[in-house]
Amino acid sequence: MKKYYLLAPGPTPMPPRVLQAMTRPILHHRTKEFVALMKSVSTDLRWLFETTSDVLVLNSTGTGGMEAAVTNFLSRGDKAIAVCGGKFGKRWAQIGKAYGVEMIEIEVPYGSAVDPATVARLLDEHKDVRAVFTQGSETSTGVAHPIREIAALVRHRPDTLMVVDGVTSVGVMPQPMDEWGIDVLVSGSQKAFMLPPGLAFIGVSAKAWSFAERSTLPKYYFNLTKERKTQGNGESAYTSAVSLVMGLRESLNMMKEEGLPAIFRRHALLAQATREGLVALGCELLAKTHPSAAVTAVYPPSGVAAGDVTSTLNKTYNITAAGGQDELKGKIFRIAHLGYAGRFDVVTAISALEMVFKELGHQFDSGIGVATAHRVLEAGGDL
User: What is the spatial distance between Cα 243 and Cα 337, in angstroms, rounded to a whole number?
Assistant: First the structure.
């Protein structure tokens, strides 16, 4: 028998408490019991997003939330800036173009974070930009963009929205909507929320709602104005993903028990231990200066193919890690450390990679990666 380990950046492992919550008898989505459930999770989503504004629940993956963030606040012919530093940054540009939005793309080298000065320059050059789209954590590269600095450029521009794909940053790294001035913040259930895929979450500021009143892009299922009205009453506009919402109630309970400062500290420590352990084994970090706390992306040691690393982890050790995407396909591999993750998940990942590297012919001092990760984790104290 081989135990299965899931170390990819989504879906991520699910806690037994969440699994158990989802096996309870299903509720009808138009009953007072479900209304109470929806009102409860809505309150706690605002806590997690650190906002007093609406945080809506959509039956969708994160990409549906991204599409809703375009169609509900912009109109055909509008201009918007998209930070394209990976597969998901490019997705913002692709969605905007599909709806006739003129996307001004900032091409950022994969592994680098966008320079806020570049955003500032484009905002000055294009006074009519209606939105800036970026990632909190670019899942494909393991980069964390400087959201606070970019939001500071946007928040005092009444005709421009700050829109963030927080699919792998919400519940992982600080991104307080209200404090930083984020107008639209999107996330998804299969990441730090510790749930299966199927729910998207979208926080919407008062400023963004004023844009929604003027938006002329087509929308039906992802009509956020309609969802705002119905979810304010504890229901949803259409059939709810009831079992997922039941699991969401439990995952939010777990997050509240841990507390946001502890959640952020845990992810930061696990990420640091992973990075230092991999570097000790001869890997090269893709994100050298602005690494994400959600996922670490690395080039394998010299002479080792990234595809061989992920395939050997899977076939020999029953471990799922992630490879590169788009232009990074076959060049890097990625290890996630978000959501239901603790120190022994990092130790397991580094230990398994030591065995894989040995099998693939890479020479190194056995145990050096694990020992390095141990030192970081021990110095970090209790999680």
Answer: 25
Number of Cβ within 10 Å of residue 95's Cβ equals 20
Q: Which two tokens stand for residue 312?
A: 């050997």
The SS3 call for residue 119 is: helix
Tell the residue number behind the tokens 């939005």, with chain if given: 101
pLDDT score recorded for residue 1? 79
Cα 286 to Cα 326: distance, rounded to the nearest angstrom: 14
Mean pLDDT by 10 residues, the chain (383 residues): 93 98 95 97 98 98 98 98 97 98 98 98 98 98 98 97 98 98 98 98 98 98 98 96 98 98 98 98 97 98 98 97 96 98 97 98 97 96 77
Q: CA angle, 16 as apex, 13 and 17 as ends, to 5°?
A: 115
pLDDT value at residue 142: 98
> How many angstroms separate the first and last alpha carbons of the chain?
30
Distance between CA atoms of 99 and 79, rounded to whole angstroms?
12
Q: How far is CA 193 from the centre of its chain?
A: 10
Beta strands in the chain (DSSP E): 5-6, 54-59, 79-84, 102-107, 129-135, 137-138, 143-144, 161-165, 184-188, 199-204, 284-285, 295-299, 319-320, 322-323, 333-336
Phi, psi (deg, nearest 5) at residue 189: -70, -25
According to the model, what pLDDT value does residue 168 have?
98
Say whether 251 sits in a helix, a strand or coil.
Answer: helix
CA angle 345, 251, 144 (to 5 degrees): 60
CA dist 318 and 320 (Å) reads: 7
Could you tell me the two tokens for 273?
């231990």
Domains and CATH numbers, the chain: 16-257 (3.40.640.10), 259-379 (3.90.1150.10)
Whether the pTM exceeds 0.85: the reply is yes
Task: Classify 382 as helix, strand or coil.
Answer: coil
Q: Residues 140, 327: contact at Cβ < 8 Å?
A: no
